[in-house]
Design brief:
heterodimer, A: alpha/beta, 5-stranded mixed beta sheet, two-stranded antiparallel ribbon, 7 strands, globular, B: mainly alpha, Leucine-rich Repeat Variant, protein phosphatase (chain A), RNA_pol_II_suA (chain A), mRNA processing (chain A), EC 3.1.3.16 (chain A)
Chain lengths: 254, 671
């Protein structure tokens, strides 16, 4: 039953636009806003979800020629394009071979540059980001679901949200998916994220379909089960489909 | 402008979808320019009211929630909008059987509105309507909370938190309400719940590390982590098992050793000098015998030692220890048999070259199965020395290590002892803070048949303390006094008075009472009663032991008088209730008459004694008389009492003094 549901959701894979046109708004988060969160950003935006992405690290860190010589950049001030050009000039062969240039090439077509989660003010209108992929629907700058790609990032996000003191009084689901920081795993996880987004969105649409008093009054516990309540269930079902990507969930506040 | 057009268009009959489109356009406008917020929010209010179609209500409620929460607005603009939307918000919330999404967003909007509205009404208290609306919203939210579906409940919780926060003094600990937990079915659930709780608690801890709950939170977090480890580290445990399963290699090794060892006999050493290394070498392998363990790095050697010790079979160890012991015994025997001159040779041979290499020897045998030198040495350390001594006393004494004794603790010097007993005394007062007041209920029961300290409340504990102060060392002080010679010697040696436990507690009791003497006067009375009783016993016993009642009473009165004001009637009560009054004690009251405000208190207290305590009537009247004599200001009142209770006194005084001023006074008094 569950798996049937799941595969159906997976089959949709966000390619089709639902009749109601309702789309959950997503936010992907990894350490440097380069690999995992950007893969998620790309895939979710391709599936027509409003999406933004961030990194929780103190700086953008990319591998360098040796382990002790990483390439380090500042968040919010460096564009993917400039990083691309710098690395291309430094050692095109090396950075082509380790996939960095391909990654940056992808990223610079998604948005301008890596953004830091902690510096982002939730609810600041993002009308200046029209060219970003996944910007449509994200104008108000408040996502419904945050997907982090590593437990450390999840911790940082929750911590940060607690520190902010929830000025918007708005609940947000924060889900962690443990993804190894390499291109292959990021690619796989991107698909998994879209699968999760589809399942969540389906649940949200179902909940929204229960309009008005009739459903509210007449329904048993099941029909009153709401989207917020169903998120952990949906995630648990998703986990069964993606057992290699251990997940965690919490409800936090913006 | 946009707002106006939307507002007007709503009245005409256009489809909901078209309206939504227009509304979205309006929303985009405010997102782009916050200046439009005021007009657009106010403009859409008629469209999204409680009578509008559900789609519009949903859109409206969400738009209101978004607008009231937006960070781009300044407080003033926010107040404007908030006050304007309250009525609509109230309408949305009061719709019977309202749609969940509308409710959720409306409650969220109300949560944002509440602190702003509260702030606003503080500055505009004349405008009560807004506050009434906000109050109505609050009541409505509290009303729907219980029956609401989860998303609405979540918003309600947030709303309640906002209310609490808004109305809490800013310094107070932020009160957060945990979300209602759901039954953990899967790993995801458990992990999510655990992590959420842990993050939340650590956050609280970090925010207010000195909170009284901090210790418990810390404990809880640790317990949470442990239980999580228990639930999830099955993998870890499996790995441990795998490690052990991987250990068969080690096991095989160990087995080989075990089977090998019994066959390896430990040959007794031949005659002649042997190095210590030779004594402890058990292997027959020449190559291994020649191996210099000093080549091994210390950490590796340590690792090997530990592993060997852990894996060593007890039987093997016993065998090895026995073997070495035999060797040593035979050496001692040989040494004893040889002339005394031979001894240094043995010892020299053993120690001289090894003084440096000893450590190496410790490690050398590690490579061979049974010889764990450290273990053996330990065994030897612990072995009773009798055996070698029996065989060869001197050598044994030279070779064997005596049993280890802990150095005796440093002698307790009187200062430290005094300090410690002080600390002990202060601990006696520890429970007071936590203990409950016995309460008024208990008081009527108190009477002659009362059992002191029969329950664990503050009164009982105080009884225990007072008795500890008065009686615990009562007998001991006598003895001290009896041995006069020792005492003088002691005190001269120490050259400072030593405080007994009783005195230490008395001291603290005094401090405790003075901390809040107006309310603790009863304790003072109880204490003095105990002192008095104890003094009576001491007197009866004789022996000139020190008496405490008078000193304590004087000190307490002195202490209280420092802080006394005209309203402190407790003084009267205190003087009436303590078991014995003396002239010096009442004499303290005279000091009060120096201050005109407390004259009445002092004299009233004395009058009360005159009237209600006949045994002390005379001293009390004497005191009044002294006051009359000494304090000009207190004369009128003192004279009044004296006229009544000691007629003729003033006349005798005035006649005696034969002054010119006194008659005037007497006249004044007579009136």
């Amino acid at each position: 039953m569950d798996t049937a549901n799941g595969s159906a959701a997976a089959a949709q894979n966000g390619q089709q636009q639902d009749a109601s046109g309702f789309r959950l708004k997503f936010c992907t988060v990894c350490a440097s806003n380069q690999n995992r969160s950007m893969e998620g950003h790309l895939r979710l935006s391709q599936a027509n979800y409003p999406v933004i992405s961030f990194g929780t690290g103190s700086l953008v860190r990319l591998p360098g020629p040796t382990i002790t010589q990483p390439n380090v950049y500042k968040f919010n001030e460096t564009s993917y394009d400039s990083i691309y050009r710098e690395l291309d000039a430094k050692d095109a062969r090396l950075y082509r071979a380790n996939g960095l240039l391909n990654m940056l090439e992808r990223n610079r077509h998604i948005k301008w540059g890596p953004e830091r989660w902690q510096d982002w003010q939730v609810g600041m209108p993002r009308v200046k980001h029209e060219k970003d992929q996944g910007s449509v629907g994200m104008e108000a700058g408040v996502p419904d679901v945050v997907i982090t790609c590593e437990e450390r990032c999840w911790d940082a996000v929750i911590d940060d949200l607690l520190n902010r003191g929830a000025p918007l009084n708005r609940p947000v689901h924060v889900i962690n998916i443990d993804i190894k920081d390499n291109h292959k795993d990021a690619l796989t996880a991107g698909g998994a994220m879209v699968d999760l987004a589809d399942a969540l969105n389906k649940a949200a649409i179902e909940e929204r379909a229960k309009v008005g008093a009739s459903a509210f009054e007449a329904g048993g516990a099941a029909s009153r089960a709401s989207f917020d309540e169903r998120v952990p269930e949906v995630l648990a079902e998703w986990q069964e489909r993606w057992p290699d990507l251990p997940a965690t969930w919490t409800l936090s506040w913006f | 402008m946009a707002a106006d057009t939307t507002a007007t268009s709503s009245s005409s009959s256009i489809s909901v979808a078209e309206q939504l489109e227009q509304l979205n356009a309006a929303r985009k406008l405010v997102l782009e320019n916050a200046a439009y917020y005021d007009r657009i929010v106010k403009g859409v209010l008629p469209i999204i009211g409680p009578t509008a179609p559900v789609e519009l209500r949903r859109w409206g409620a969400e738009f209101l929630a978004e607008s009231l929460a937006t960070p781009v607005l300044a407080m003033r603009d926010r107040e404007n909008i908030t006050v304007a939307v309250l009525d609509t918000l109230k309408g949305l919330l009061e719709g019977a059987g309202e749609d969940t999404i509308v409710l959720k967003a409306s409650v969220a909007a109300a949560a944002s509105a509440y602190p702003v509205a509260l702030r606003w009404i503080i500055h505009n208290s004349y405008h009560t309507e807004s506050w009434e609306q906000m109050s109505a919203i609050k009541s409505r939210i509290l009303q729907i909370w219980d029956g609401a579906p989860s998303p609405v409940k979540l918003s309600c919780i947030k709303f309640a938190q906002r209310v609490v926060l808004a109305q809490t003094v800013s310094n107070g600990m932020e009160q957060k309400l945990a979300n209602s937990p759901m039954t953990p079915k899967t790993k995801v659930f458990i992990k999510s719940l655990e992590k959420t709780t842990r993050m939340f608690l650590t956050h609280l801890l970090r925010r207010d590390p000195n909170n009284p709950m901090a210790g418990r939170i810390q404990q809880y977090v640790e317990r949470l982590m442990r239980s999580r480890a228990e639930i999830f580290d099955e993998a870890g445990r499996k790995r441990a098992l795998v490690d052990q399963a991987g250990a068969p290699a080690g096991d095989a090794k160990r087995q080989r050793m075990e089977t090998g060892i019994p066959q390896i006999s430990i040959p007794p050493l031949g005659p002649g000098p042997h190095t210590l290394a030779a004594v402890f070498t058990l292997t027959n392998n020449l190559g291994l015998q020649g191996f210099d363990a000093a080549q091994l790095p210390a950490n590796l050697a340590a690792k090997i030692s530990v592993r060997t010790l852990a894996a060593l079979d007890q039987h093997v160890l016993d065998l090895a220890v026995g073997g070495i012991r035999d060797r040593l015994t035979s050496i001692y025997a040989a040494g004893a048999a040889a002339a005394a001159a031979a001894q240094p040779a043995v010892i020299n041979a053993a120690t001289a070259p090894l003084g440096v290499d000893e450590e190496d020897d410790d490690y050398e045998p590690d490579l061979t199965p049974a010889e764990d030198t450290e273990q053996i040495l330990n065994k030897l350390d612990n072995a009773p020395p009798e055996e070698p001594i029996d065989h060869a006393v001197e050598t044994a004494a030279a070779m064997a290590l005596g049993p280890f004794r802990l150095p005796p603790p440093p002698a307790l010097d009187p200062d430290i002892a005094a300090k410690l007993s002080q600390a002990a005394a202060s601990r006696v007062f520890g429970p007071l803070a936590a203990l409950k007041d016995g309460g008024a209920l208990r008081k009527p029961k108190a009477g002659i048949n009362r059992l002191a300290a029969s329950s664990y409340d503050r009164d009982s504990w105080l009884t225990v303390i007072t008795r500890l102060a008065t009686r615990s060392t009562a007998g001991l002080e006598d003895i001290d006094d009896g041995n006069n010679g020792i005492k003088t010697e002691d005190s001269s040696a120490l050259d400072r008075p030593r405080m007994s436990l009783g005195d230490a507690i008395r001291e603290m009791l005094y401090t405790y009472i003075l901390e809040d003497w107006r309310r603790r006067i009863e304790i003072a009375v109880a204490w003095l009663c105990e002192e008095w009783y104890n003094d009576q016993l001491t007197k009866r016993r004789g022996g000139g032991a020190p008496l405490h009642y008078e000193a304590c009473a004087l000190r307490l009165v002195d202490g209280c008088l420092n802080y006394i004001t005209a309203q402190d009637k407790v003084l009267t009560r205190f003087l009436a209730e303590i078991p014995e009054l003396s002239r010096p004690l009442l004499g303290k009251l005279k000091g009060l008459c120096a201050d005109p405000t407390t004259v009445q208190l002092a004299l009233t207290s004395l009058l009360y004694l005159v009237m209600m305590r006949p045994p002390v009537r005379e001293i009390a009247l004497d005191t009044v008389a002294e006051i009359w004599t000494e304090y000009e200001d207190a004369r009128p009142l003192a004279a009044k009492y004296l006229v009544k209770w000691r007629p003729g006194f003033i006349e005798s005084q005035t006649r005696g003094s034969a002054s010119d001023a006194a008659p005037a006074n007497a006249m004044a008094v007579a009136t």
